[in-house]
What does this fold into?
Amino acid sequence: MTNTSLTLGEVADRLDLACRGDRARPLTGLATLANAEAHHVSFLANAKYRKFLHETRAGAVIIAKNLVDDCPVDCLLADDPYLAYARLSQLFDDAPMLPAGIHSTAVVASTAQIDASAAIGPLCVIGEGVVIGAEVSVGAGTVIGANCRIDAGSKLHPRVTLLHGVTLGSGCAVHSGAVIGGDGFGFAPIHAGERRGQWERIAQLGSVHIGRNVSIGCNTAIDRGALDDTVIADNVIIDNLVQIAHNVQIGEGTAIAGSVGIAGSAIIGAHCMIGGGAGIVGHVQIADGVQIQARAFIVGSIDKPGAYASGTGMMELRDWRRNAVRFSQLEDMYKRIVELEKQLSNRQ
Amino acid sequence: MTNTSLTLGEVADRLDLACRGDRARPLTGLATLANAEAHHVSFLANAKYRKFLHETRAGAVIIAKNLVDDCPVDCLLADDPYLAYARLSQLFDDAPMLPAGIHSTAVVASTAQIDASAAIGPLCVIGEGVVIGAEVSVGAGTVIGANCRIDAGSKLHPRVTLLHGVTLGSGCAVHSGAVIGGDGFGFAPIHAGERRGQWERIAQLGSVHIGRNVSIGCNTAIDRGALDDTVIADNVIIDNLVQIAHNVQIGEGTAIAGSVGIAGSAIIGAHCMIGGGAGIVGHVQIADGVQIQARAFIVGSIDKPGAYASGTGMMELRDWRRNAVRFSQLEDMYKRIVELEKQLSNRQ
Amino acid sequence: MTNTSLTLGEVADRLDLACRGDRARPLTGLATLANAEAHHVSFLANAKYRKFLHETRAGAVIIAKNLVDDCPVDCLLADDPYLAYARLSQLFDDAPMLPAGIHSTAVVASTAQIDASAAIGPLCVIGEGVVIGAEVSVGAGTVIGANCRIDAGSKLHPRVTLLHGVTLGSGCAVHSGAVIGGDGFGFAPIHAGERRGQWERIAQLGSVHIGRNVSIGCNTAIDRGALDDTVIADNVIIDNLVQIAHNVQIGEGTAIAGSVGIAGSAIIGAHCMIGGGAGIVGHVQIADGVQIQARAFIVGSIDKPGAYASGTGMMELRDWRRNAVRFSQLEDMYKRIVELEKQLSNRQ
It folds into this structure.
């Protein structure tokens, strides 16, 4: 699966884990318990996969200490096997890396400052006044507008767009197709005069400020602020095709799954979990630690942690049609229940 | 905040507003009433911010004429302060502009006609027969297919794609990542023969015709028509990540918020407001002046103005689970109400 | 409408259809029955348009054999007129095609193998070890990562991104802005230590494997797998702005409309139809032949064919507000019905 080969001992040392078994065993990749072969490391992080443990043919398994006696093969002992698996995966990551330096076909403004250890891929465009830190990688075809700042170790995948003035902290990943710093959707309606019924554009004078270790998914859009900045705090992770409107603020460590939409000036707390396809209206405030279920539509502020949902369950279309009709009659059904209660109570 | 400096008198003249106070006062930016300092212009456009007026430290405030006596600082008098703010914001817009001319790294077909005042950024690709008008700006990495026409003053941000034959009126803005003129999603199912169960592509022979002063958001997709064109009328504003399918028609001045999806051949009237994340099925007709709430799913035509919604409110997950179960029993609940009514009525 | 001119006889021969009328009649395009003129072919594939047949001014009409006597003009006789229309549309498709060969501005790695009949557009980037088959077309500005394989006849439109190691079967179409092989959204929470509350990235070591004759829409994102590959089978058609997360598997011939989101490790069967804006949670299994209504949210596995839906119908905002309030009281309404039933039954 990968081109990397490490011994079990090397893996244990790099992950700082105790190991049991043949430290010289060569390992060339990762696989699930069910699929692993002798040259694979596997892991047991979820109790429901425990049934696969006794039959695994993995070379070694990352496992919680209390399960070590159940493991039929070599093992690596972890307090948190899932976290150890995450770190292990990085050891075997053989995604190609750009070499340091500026590709000859990149178009780089004369006032841009690019660290010598940074890699700028083919056909990138780097604007005036841009500052790019150490070991930053900028993938092919990426466009970085004037006066952006990208801190050390951040990775922009191919074909990303940063408009002018965006700042990106260290250790971030921005995936292909993402657009950061596009104009917020701000227009004033024209109510009178010959341009009545048209829209006057509100220039978006703020920017986007992104913290450290933030991940931004493919084709996600994060708009610049109208007056103040749109702000994404440290350690936020954002999946693909997410829309983040102008002046949104997202607190530290919050996770946002794919296809979410967050309207303007919403303030999301720290360590929230926002499920896929959820929507949040503008100008609301969501407390720290809130969990929003997938596809939920959040129409107001939430002032305490907890899980929130909206919508209906799924059902067969035939049943759904009947129930959906009754939904549109709910007010009437409610009144009929009240009327029944009144009649019965009058007779007692 | 910006690099522009204007005196209060200059601002008043440019916006054609009366002013009260020191016409020589230097102003270098905009800010909200609460954040503004002496070099800022602010504005009061929403009654709920009126409480910030008496404490503002702004150099000047745009304000409705009837509130002028409440304003503790210099002011600009506007019939419509929000509209005046929009125009003001443009005065202080210091987004970098491309210089006129064709960047040496752009790939321009020999038959393209590009006005001398237009700006074509680095690494753009301009196809055969393209016509680009005066003062058009085409951002870095943008691709314009054969025979497109872009009228005067339109601005394409970096990394936009226009496929062949698209026409864009004057004064439009197309934001990064937008794709205009991709193939509509048209396929005929194959019901017989050795290719049974496969799809036959329907070539999309129409194009996309976009009017004047239209704004199209980041990573939005507008497909070309199957036989006739997809048509976006003048003054339509479209936010990010919106999907507009083939042969959709959108009437003048309509506003479409982020993450909306509009299916094929839907006809949307003029001056509609479509909230974020809403969906509209294909082949429906929506009257002028309709307001569609965020996340509403419009499954049929709407023949008169008004506001329309669907879905449920949000609630805590625990409560939602119980109510969602009952939703799936609504038909049964309805019948039980009817049965109760019948029994009670039989006893009277 | 197009630059192609064919005689009726040529059209009949190319589509392998019988024709009635003047085989020498010149035809230069397609149009609907209502809009067609003498140089157009039209078609009658849907009974609701039959009313336009007797008045059509089309030069010829594709029509089912049993309707031939109703057709006032020349006709082409088809078992499946809609399928014949699809094939006809391809005859008149005059979308510009890239010439074979590698554009001088493309950046192609020395180890890439590109068939001599393939066309690589301007400003493309082709990585190390890429293999590109016969008559493949790669549009302007497209980036293809290392070790991708693209089989014969596939067409990548401008500004597509394939990250490393993606394989694409023959006859595929990938539309502008699509991103295939971005990192899956995989992170392990850090529960202890000084990085508590942060996320550890899980390197995504799988890739994306796409079958033959697959169509992928504009700005759609398909993520690479965590350990195993994300797999899209032959003849799948996917519209714009669709999110397909890591390790999703999609069966042969399935159609996915715009703005759909499919979460990680969901397994979708063959010949399913997924309506626009629908969502599917992760780790579920959907049987072959399932129809998911537009905007439905699928929260569990579906083990038999059929149509499934969720949500509510649309209604005027005023009515919706009342009903939505009652939705949040459904559990209470249910209990009141039960109580009424108990009281009535006690009295009988």
In short: Chain B touches chain A through 81 residues (CB under 8 Å).
